[in-house]
Structure formats: C-alpha cells, structure tokens
C-alpha cells in the first residue's frame, strides 16, 4: 500500500458550521483535533469574509504587518562557534527571490503573513513542471507553491497511537482540495521535511498547529461591525436623534398615511437639518441621543485599540483614532521601534526558520533575513551607527591596554569579555619607572 493511502486510510470527516455569528464564537474549541491529525482551529473562509474583507480595522492591522514584513530579503549567514557572522548570497537563493513565475520575495512574505493572521498557519512546498512535489521536485519550473491552510491536515504518529503521548511527532502533511466544478484532485501526502510550516503563534489546544491572532478578539470585531452599522443606520434615518411623533387620531388609515408621509419627507441623510412641520395635533419628542452624546468616537476607538493590541500593531502605526490623538513625533518613533522590535523581527526570525525546510542552507550557515533596505527601519540605522561608534571606542581602549586586536573585535561583537587575550605588552604609562629603554641621539650614551 502506498504511503499516501496508509496515511489517509480511515480519515474522519470534519467540517465546521458557518462561523460568523455570535452563537458560533465560543465554539472554537478543539474541533480541529481528530485522533491522529490536526487541522486549523477556525473557519478560514469565515475569517476572510467576516473579518478581513468586511472590517476596516482588521484589514488595516493585517496590512500594516504585511507592508513591513514583506520588505525583507533573504541571505545566508555564516555561523562560527555558534555565533552569527556575515551575510552572503548563492544562486540557490533565487528560489526565494522568484518563488513562482513573476512572483517576488515580497509577495511570498505577504502570503505568509495573510495566512498566519487568518488561519494561524502557512504551508508551502516545492513543485516542478513534471508534477513532482517536495524533494522529488528537481526538474524544470521548480517553484514554491502555497498550500491553502484549511485544506491541509497534519498527520501525527506515536508508538501508542495517542496524539497526546510524549513521543508524538509530525510524520506528514496531507493536502486535499475540495471538489471544484465536478473535478476532484487526489490528496497529496508530503513528508514533514518537505513542507514549510510557519506558525508563529501556537494554539494551546493543539500540539503543532498555530492560532490566528483574530481568535481572541472575535467579540471586539463583531462589536466594531455593530457600531459601524449603527452609525450607518443613524445617517440613513436622517442623521438626527430618535424621534417619537404622537398623532391625535383614532383613524388607522389617517395614521398610516401620516407615517408614510413623514418617512418620505423626513427620513434619509439628504433630509438632515431640515425644519420639521407638523399638523393635525401631531407632537414630536426627541428620545434618543446623537453620536456626540453617545461618546461614539471613544466607544468605537476603544474597540479599535483592543484589536490592534491583539495584532501587536501600535494604534498610531495603523492610523487609528486613539493612537493619533496622542501622537507626536517622539511617540511615533517609539511606536515604530516597538512595532519593529516586538512584532516584525520575531516574525522574520520564525519565517526564516520555517523556510529552511524548503531551502537547506550550506554547511556552517543558516538562512537569515536582511532588513538593511527596509525603509520603515531607516531611523534605526542611526542607532546602529551610534552603537558602532561606542564599540569602536571600546575596541580602541582595549587595544591600547595591550589586548590582542583580533580577540578584542571578537569579544566586543559577542559581548563577551571572556574572549579577550592579552599580548603581554603594556602602554608606556603602565611601565614601572626605569624599566623602559629610551632611544638616544647618535653619539650619546644610553640613559
């Protein structure tokens, strides 16, 4: 029996009900864990349609992450005695520079960020024009192929068959797209070392899959959509507070005619601000509050901030109202540093570790990212220059004190003074009186 048949035999059917309803939100649970396999823990299409494509706050957070994350380039980095060294390139990196025909490194990173935000996981493998996958894809047209996360199943194995046993490990990934237009593709089974699996936020209810940052703030997203809908209805109803109109009549026909006339003449944003004229004993009373009285801006702004916090994006970076209220140049610089150091750099580190599966590094090196051309980090270059200036002063002082220049450079770079070695030579100021020998003019005696 083929490996793919053995791995998919006895597979249990699994699906989730429609996601985007409040009754569904608390039910995210561990429905994606099926005996010896794991799927993503949420409805991917529900997140895409219910949040990404229909909520401006979620879209802005993901876009802010994408725009910076996709700017990095990939290089090899030498490793010497466990310490990172200089960056260098080889022709093998062309696979990441052009991951698919007409594709770019930035597009690959943008897809990685989108899938991780919406599904918690990004999967990819190598294919070629001959229809080979994984390590067997060595022919013409070799390229990286994204695997839609909700069509991927992680297959687990342990000696006991228990997915929660300590010896459980990933043995394969099964990619199984649904039937489309009456056509069904055969499931493709790939071994663990043939798939790039990028999942920077772990799902505590699973062993190996990741979790979307949207999951903890689903209620906030739904509340933001509700407030936006409320604002829309406010303007549709005349951009005025709620009004109760009482009419002194017992005739139902007269009452209905008055209601229709009132709605026709006084409802809608184009009727806002007009003078209200009433007759036949009609009386109008305001019972609602306008957006200012409801403190609408702060109410919606608080939800925006909570969503941005889950995305690890400072509100001022995403352009949200609460962030802009307190924004100054200094605050923006601090927010930019927080976003770069606390969000983007960790994501880059996790991404290169995952991509190494598809592109094994040369001996003594690792795949790494090069952020030197990222415009968002340009101000950080000044900080780097200041650090290098301080390091240069330290190197000068240590060399003047008699330490070996090569060991000084290594110690300062590694921030480990235990690497210093001394030459045995000291500066003149440290010599005991009379121990030195001076050079005299010709014809004079040595003193």
Helix/strand/pairing category: alpha+beta
Number of helices: 13
Assembly type of the chains comes to single chain
Task: Output the radius of gyration.
Answer: 32 Å
User: SSE string, helix = H, strand = E?
Assistant: HEEHHEEHHEEEEEEHEHEHHHHEHH
Strand sequence of the main sheet, in spatial order? 1-2-7-8-9
Let me know the average pLDDT.
78
Q: Span between N and C termini? A: 95 Å
Strand content: 5-15%
Q: Which stretches of 5+ consecutive residues score pLDDT under 50?
A: 1-6, 8-35
Q: How would you sum up the global shape?
A: flat
Total beta strands: 13
Helix content: 25-40%
* Count of the separate structural domains: 3
Report the sheet with the most strands, covering strand number, pairing sense and barrel closure.
5 strands, antiparallel
Quick overview:
With 447 residues, the protein is an alpha+beta fold. Helices cover 37% and strands 14% of the residues. A hairpin with a 2-residue loop joins strand 3 and strand 4 (83-88).
